[in-house]
Amino acid sequence: MSEHETAVVATQETEDVAGRDDRGMTTAEYAVGTVAAVSFGGVLVKILTDENLRNLILQIILWILETVSGVVLS
User: Per its UniProt record, what Pfam families does this chain match (predicted)?
Assistant: First the structure.
């Protein structure tokens, strides 16, 4: 099979029954991805602005580093 024939077959395999090209994201998928990204950003803002959560995460990170390295960091 030539390179051109392989490309044609690969293109045909990405089309669904109705003949639509199914490569890439549709508008609905972009909307879901945008909502997920904004939600994740909101969680990060909450974590970084809350002193208790920031200290908790810092303690977890220090514990992991101490466990892995064997060196007491605090």
Answer: DUF4244
Q: Which residues, at least 6 apart from 66, have a Cβ–Cβ distance to it below 8 Å?
A: 72, 73, 74
Q: Which structure tokens are listed for 73?
A: 């960091």
And the tokens for 70? 């064997």
| Residues recorded for the chain | 74
For residue 57, give its domain range. Answer: 3-69
Q: Which residue has the tokens 């024939």?
A: 5
pLDDT in tens, 16-27: 556 666 666 678
Find the angle CA(28)-CA(30)-CA(33) to the nearest 5 degrees. Answer: 110
Percent of the chain with pLDDT over 70: 65
Residue 24 maps to a domain: yes
- The alpha carbon of residue 42 and the mean position of all alpha carbons in its chain are separated, in whole angstroms, by 15
